[in-house]
Amino acid sequence: MTLGLGDAAKVPASAGRADQCPAASCFHDPSYAREWQRPGVDAEFRALVELLVRGLRN
Questions:
Q1: C-alpha dihedral over 58, 32, 10, 53, to 10 degrees?
Q2: Helix crossing, 17-28 with 41-57: angle to 10°?
């Protein structure tokens, strides 16, 4: 399953580790640089970071 930039906020906290890597790839892959300027991307990034941190704590 490949997740796009807009899907990061939709990934539930219970999502498996396999879903986190594709969701995060759009935030470190330079080919997505144009998307990083899109309105709402900051909230999506924060949601992804929150998901990753919750996963590390559990």
A1: 20
A2: 140
d(C-alpha 30, C-alpha 16), whole Å: 25
CB 9 within 8 A of CB 27: no
pTM: 0.55
Cα pseudo-dihedral 6, 9, 14, 15, rounded to 10: 20
What does the pLDDT look like over 1-58, one tens digit per residue?
445 555 555 555 554 444 445 677 888 888 888 888 989 889 888 988 898 899 888 7
* Alpha-carbon span 9 to 48, nearest angstrom: 6
Class of residue 2 by CB neighbours under 10 A (exposed 0-12, middle 13-18, buried 19+): exposed
